[in-house]
Structures
1.
Amino acid sequence: MRKITQLAVKKFLNHENFRMGNTDVWSGYECSLTRITRLSLHGNDIATKVYDTIKIDNQGWFSNTTKERLNGLLHSLGRIGIQQKNYKWYLDGKEWNGEEVELLKNNEWEYTHP
């Protein structure tokens, strides 16, 4: 795992702001009393944390960098992560189209927009 990914994931999980290269972590309040933390790559939010709920989304970018950043987060949470086979992505062993999902316990996940 690249150093930038390690730092970004650590800051994301600790609700701390961070910026390096093409990666940002922003933590704060948006029109509410609820703290929101966002992990962004090239300005696209690829992970969001509110309380203990984490959602991920590749924002339509099936790039190695997007996969690497998300895998850094997923592996730090003890999850299998994203693998790629025949140009398809698999999240925790199940085919994933990259759209926003909420990470659940026991390596399960569900789409947030059915």
2.
Amino acid sequence: MSAVLTRRQFAFASGAAAIGLVIPTSEATSCPATLDRSIIPSDLVNPELRAPLSAFLGRFAGFDEFTWSNKELPTIRAGASKTAPPLATPTHIERVIPGLKGSPPVRVYVINAAGHKDLKPAILHMHGGGYIAGTAAGSIRPLQDVAKEHDCVIVTVDYRLAPEARFPASLNDNYAALRWLYDNAAELGADRHRIAIMGESAGGGHAAELAIAARDRGEVPILLQVLIYPMLDDRTGSSRKLPPYIGKYMWTAQANRFGWSSLLGVPAGSARVPAGAVPARVKSVARLAPAFIGVGSIDLFAEEDIEYAKRLILAGVPTELLVVPGAFHGFNGLAPHAGVSKEFDAAWNTALRRAFVSKPTA
């Protein structure tokens, strides 16, 4: 069923892939039973993920040849915003909160908020999208499942996107949301001493960046940072080359260069980048919040995520690292019912559950 797509269709698919929402679940479960080896030449792809990947690449023939650019950005963002509508419960509300001094107000969505005598744990979430796409509203539906699973309050941040807003705009927005959650925890029914931060892809990069800022400012304690295939190092795919089978699918080296260059305002892999913008370049990771890091072995981010976990461990930071054999970027979004996806999602949920029960309300 291969077909040559228009540039608009390429951009739309690319935007969806940027946040791991490449095809709807209903389509992901109706994939061909056998792998089309003309589409997927690598046997390194996990057997459970080959059919879903083949179906995607069959629908979007030539996807890996897409050129990431500002010209395609509006349609990339349209693709990234195509998500499932929220459920009626847990309830969610939209709030506009003050930004940091000199920054504009920030829109957030609060899920499962309620005033309770027994305060709930909380998660501050940052969406994916390569620093250039995605919306907080698009994360509400999957986060409702997380809120139900852990009976927690979740705040997801509609941070400003690059390249219109370069670093530190997004960090300022995310920190403003963290500070607001901490200061207004009781009103939201949240325990200010049990706040985890979480994100996937670029959202994971934002979470890692935020954990560093929170450590340095010393205002808000963070219980756990949950980094789902996080985007941590601008040098990956630019000044740091990788084997051709790493990052071949979904989020590519070219996409990575575009996303990072858009955020930093200088080419990805430059000798100098803005201080605090790239978690992998931070000199010290000591005293950071405990971390869960999960990534696939053929994800473009595999090496940088493994290296970051190693640095955390050597710095004495309690760290759990999960590397899924043969998994590409966003695999659990593309194939949510695959065994490896279920195991992956169960792992980070277990890390959250363990953290939430280990810290009594102060």
3.
Amino acid sequence: MGLVLSLDSAHQRLVSNQDLLLAGRTIVLGVSGSIAAFKAADLTSRLTEAGAQVFPVMTAGAKRFIQPLTLQTLSRNPVASELWDESNGWQPGHIELADQADLLLVAPATAHCIAQFAHGLAPDLLSSIHLATAAPVMLAPAMNGKMLAHAATQANIATLRQRAYHFIEPQHGMLACGYEGAGKMATVETIVSTVCDFLG
């Protein structure tokens, strides 16, 4: 019980310290199709508690791992996932959302998402917002270690680094595929701390 109280107190202090840093900030949180997408719930909650307005944008793959309603409830904002939803009156539209963003944070960022960004492709809502925003882009990669090490993925990452994109390095550990190695998404605490340092 003492440990739980201690952890709760530490979390409250963390939120209190970060509150001033993220208040008034708008973060578009891209969630792509990795098993690490389930961590987007905690990430959304932490960023919202820290004062940010979080607008989740989910790819079709992400919705296979986590329900949009979860992120909508935690962010208290609508979750966007389809370009065609805008014809039904969804607001803000992807251009407006791209204009409002102080940061486009993609966590998890799959190899496919990174490739789309590197090559300027825009087949879905997240990649369209990426092309439309002037906000800084921060990526937290999550994928199989062999996919991360592949020359194509490394070339795409290098291209984005040259464009001044920011990366939150993946961890080494046991991956969902059963392999141990690099490619595990950074912890939620690390991502939140990095965002606060950057926007602060």
4.
Amino acid sequence: MKTTARCGRAVLGRGALLALAALALAACSETMGSLTPSVNHVAEVDADSAAAPGNIASLTDVIQRNPNDSTAYNTRGIAYAKSGRYQNAIDDFTKAVQIDPKFGAAYTNRALAYRQIEKDGLALADFNAAIAANPNDAGAYLGRGNLERAHSHFPEAMSDLDTAIRLNPEGAQAYHARGLIYQRQGDHAQAITDFSNAIDRDPFAAAPYQARGESLLATGKYDAAVEDFNATLNVDSNNADAWASLGLAYERLGNKAKAIESYERATMVSPNNPMALAGLKRLGSA
């Protein structure tokens, strides 16, 4: 079933449509957004006002009025997932694909929810089902690529992320995820290019700045690394790893005072941060 047909379907009343519109991700978008990603992880579920209990209650009312509407179940499932209620979300996505076995986005969403509860085998099966239902679903390739990356299946992950980028060249997450693979493989030049592409597309996400900073640090570009770690901390000032990496960049630049200050900030957030503790010991401030 095509999204255009689903979105154009006039089965919901005005009140039901308003309830759906209250979601940050409306029914026509169909798939979940992204968790705030860390340097080593790119996931696909985030928390926002769509998960408010009132919105879930409104969506429940939509479903009661339209019990055979797969879109309504998918949309409520998104709201459940964004509130961390993953089993409720899985139940709704399951109902959505029971009603519409070709609802690719619901398979993708259920796969993402399975990943959150560490059921990766079921997640992989659902990503495969999503791609079979809709071979042009960039989100399914991104999700499967991240799953493969998490299991160190890098060639398969790279192939899926390449496809996700081809299908959705303006999406930041696939560039970030592919950059992490290049970084893991020691290809920092390619990693920096991908992280830069991710930043161009989403300049307010902290993780690509931090990841790019790590590759800049690894290639001796310490001033540029300082800029990226500071950009990370402008978004997330409680990121202990970013503070520690900033300390290392300052240490490599010979700025002992700034290095110690940054390492100490890291230990304020995470007292056992190994990079920060090692740095303070090297600089005689432990």
